[in-house]
Amino acid sequence: MASSGPPTVETIAQRAGVSIASVSRVMNGHGARPDTVRRVERAAAELGYVPNAVARSLKGGRTRQITFAMQDIGNPAYVSMFREIQAVTRPLGYRLLLHSTDADAAAELGVVRSLADRTSDGLILCPIRVTDEHLTAMREAVRPIVVIGSLPEGATVDSVRADSVSGAALALRHLLESGRRRIAFINGPADTVPGRNRLLGYEKALRDAGVTPERGLTETTEFGIEAGAAAAHRLLDADPAIDSVFCANDQLALGAAHAAQDRGLDIPGDLAVIGMDDSELARASRPLLSSVDLGSAERGRIAARMLVARLEESPPPPGSPVRCETVAPRLVVRGSSSPLGVGSGIPA
């Protein structure tokens, strides 16, 4: 007789023709014969069974779920991270939960503290601001956390970071060697980790080349295409002699390129443009956008491996050292930053 209630482990066992213990082993990832796994999964699908992750975690301590929290899921850099995190974790039987925080500290702290609810086995977090409250919450977290980003010395969680300072220097050296001298900088919020590091790299590269940074050549705004366009218009209105713009991410750079083209400027003949992240936007623009590859995909892959390694430690060794890796940047030169005198070949 068919059950009138919701599907259970017992009804799945009846449908699959196996024992309840076999169903339990399959559902909890404890191993079973391939034929048994197929029969149980088929029966569960036919019955519309949805496992209760909270109940499973209370019983066995594991949910097989991992959370990835980032500022904006629409940012191509985070999309690259997500793909690599999933590529590492999915074959191991983990589901990936996404949380877009809008860089709101309360939302980020909420995600960290929610690990105590046992709805997720671990967290990969991408904060663009790191406060003392962040550090305290991560230190007290009951589940493993890996941060994609820079952390202060002495932080007690694993992390993988980009070298934005060196990346900015790569872009500036390329522009200077290409004959550019009035190099403007469009940055994201200066109180963020990426904003602070990219400004540092911009100013350091200029000083190393014997050029004094000018405050009037730097615009600080939000990360985004429209913000980049507005910032570029302000810079060019104030100083039409600007011959190049370095931007703190590809979204800002694409906006700057749009602003230049709206003004009838040729890219790169009148204005060279370089972004950061080497995201899909860089390969979709016209002309193709030069950009500093900060290894978004690689950082996602390393973070996922770090977290899985922590999850597989049962329990973690006492005094297990914090792991920190840095991904080296790479400048990808395309049509938007050809040397002076070499046009893009594409009308503005």
List the helices and strands and how they pair.
Blueprint: H1 9-16, H2 20-27, H3 34-47, H4 53-60, E1 65-70, H5 76-89, E2 95-100, H6 105-113, E3 122-125, H7 132-140, E4 145-148, E5 158-162, H8 164-177, E6 183-187, H9 193-208, E7 218-220, H10 225-238, E8 244-247, H11 250-262, E9 272-276, H12 280-284, E10 290-293, H13 296-312, E11 324-327, E12 330-332
Parallel strand pairs: 1-2, 1-3, 3-4, 4-5, 5-11, 6-7, 6-8, 8-9, 9-10
Antiparallel strand pairs: 10-12
Helix pairs in contact: 1-2, 1-3, 5-13, 6-7, 8-9, 10-11
Pfam family, one: LacI
Keywords: DNA-binding, Transcription, Transcription regulation
Domain HTH lacI-type: 7-60
Question: How does this model look, in words?
Answer:
The chain has 348 residues and is an alpha/beta fold. The protein has 3 domains: 9-51, no CATH class; 65-162 and 296-328, Response regulator (Rossmann fold, 3-Layer(aba) Sandwich); 164-293 and 332-337, Rossmann fold. It contains 13 helices and 12 strands. The chain has helices at residues 9-16, 20-27, 34-47, 53-60, 76-89, 105-113, 132-140, 164-177, 193-208, 225-238, 250-262, 280-284, 296-312, and strands at 65-70, 95-100, 122-125, 145-148, 158-162, 183-187, 218-220, 244-247, 272-276, 290-293, 324-327, 330-332. The strands form 2 sheets. Strands 2-1-3-4-5-11 form a 6-stranded parallel beta sheet, with helices on both faces. A 6-stranded mixed beta sheet has the order 7-6-8-9-10-12, sandwiched between helices. Strand 6, helix 9 (193-208) and strand 7 (218-220) form a beta-alpha-beta unit. Helix 1 packs across helix 2 and helix 1 (9-16) packs across helix 3 (34-47). Mean pLDDT is 87; it is low at 341-348.
